[in-house]
Amino acid sequence: MGVKDFSVDLVYMWVDGNDPAWLAKKQRFMDEKTNIAGRFQDNQELKYSLRSAEKHLPWIRKIFIVTDGQTPSFLDVSHPKIEVIDHSQIIPKENLPLFNSISIEYNIYKIPGLSEHFLLANDDTFVNADLPTSFFFQDGIPVMRMVYNPFMEFKLKLKKALKLRVNTHRLAIENAYKLFKKKFNVFYPISQHHNIDAYLKSDFKAAVEEVFKEELAAVLSNRFRAKTDIQRVLVNYFGLVNKRGILKYVGRKESGRIRVHRTNYQEYIAKYNPQLFCINDSEHATDEHRAQVEPFLKKLFPVKSAFEK
């Protein structure tokens, strides 16, 4: 399959964690003492991520923004490339509301009109260089950029032996590779690179509805992060084992991860100049840290996109 034979869509996961109505709904379902604000905080990243995509990925056919009853205030929803997808359009009613990105992501293949080839992004991911379609798909096959992690199993076993805390994100990765190893007797020493990932819609559908249907059934209803979560790297494993994925180990000049609470954003960009980067918010970041995000992004992507009002 040649580059001219397929189109590519871009899917964003987005939430405005500052919205009072959304906050009230979330609060009804969670423990007030749980500190997960960084997962939902809106620092206006989506606006600048869209600017970066328009500038560097002009070949994208359609952009879908998956939300929970929200629409970004800056967004021109009349733009022909833009479509806002509410959770209710792709997630079964009995599983709503969901605040767990892992659970939500397993439903994205149901987006009406989504192309077979698509990119999955969070609102905190950015494109920092002109990239061709072949950067993400080679002859129609997704390029899966991963971090080489040969001691992944050993580290997790050691932490458990020492009774150290293992966060739910790492547990979700462990659950993914254990499940895949059990089904296919293959272990991939890799973890995701916290950035824009390439997928085939048919692989998501097959993983959820056929190959791992029984194991993923419970995960799909996990409203918040849980120890039973199974990270979507499972779909990458499935693609790789079926030769529907090209494994590429990624370096900092290709994909960077900037942590909000470290605030050395510009220095990181100047040092590595990565083709892709994410700004990773977390419970470690304060409002003072977050206040520095938008000025940095505005300087990096100053030109208003056609997707803005």
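^ that was protein a. below is b, sequence first then the tokens
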Amino acid sequence: MNNKLYVDFHIIQTVPPSCINRDDTNSPKTAVYGGARRARISSQAWKKATRDMFREKGMRTKKIQKIVAESIVSLRPQTTMEDAYKQAEKIIKAANISLNEKTGETGALFFISPKQAHELALLAVNDNFDKKTAQAALNSNPTIDIALFGRMVADDPTLNTDACCQVAHAISTHRTETEFDFFTAIDDCSPGDNAGAGMIGTVEFNSSTLYRYATIAVHDLKVQLGNKDVAADAVKEFAEAFIRSMPTGKQNTFANRTLPDFVLVTIRPDQPVNLVGAFENAVKGSSGYVEQSIERLTTYAETVYKNFSGNPKQSYIIGNGLNLKGLLEKLREDVRNDLTD
């Protein structure tokens, strides 16, 4: 019996002049696909933007000793912060997580939920520094983002959490070119006879119509979160956040926050299907790319489904009487009904 269930998200979204995601030279990220240079926004950038919209989220930090110490003090107010740090260090090391002797920080960012930090603090307060119990506390009660995006712990793989969600790098459906904005700024306190600029510089930017894709292995998400009701709620919350979110790079400079032009969500019982192949041949034109991109995507989807994978079990398209709120409710209900106990 096949108990697998995948939810795929396909989004066409246009953004005006912007620098949403930069490389190490402050240039907008790009990629060559189908022989054409495309605008690109990394999966990490859009996952961060999505996480920021969750109602409850974990903390990705090196400062877990500080977090656990603060929880210890909240549980036992008479504890001094110095003693709380010592107890936090002891319980964290009991879980087989290394801390820097000078800074008290982990070697890499550690993904921890508020509930997991509370459970570690509770163990420390009760003088329970058993390794197995401490690791069990860290492997239970994950927030949605930990369950979706996973956790990798180099110190001890038993603390790893497999990701239930994959997010593709968003790329433009068409060829793009990087442009330069030359700017000047006036020093408000300069004398009136000084007409020179107080600062000059350039900002690189591009504009694009993007194809965005993500998929959730809902059957794995149910295992991570404990039951199908919670998993269905998590899929709904991810869907809303992923559809509505926007990475914040250079937001104040470009005010480029847009919403999608087209959203297709599918439920599949076989495998995820990324439809980026619709744009391997870059969309061309001088009167906009959105309409052509939507047509390309839907036509390509029909071809792939017909020739390889079969139609999805459920499909939802925003528009034609279905708005975002309606999509979210239908998606949650259908995911819940399709998940096996």
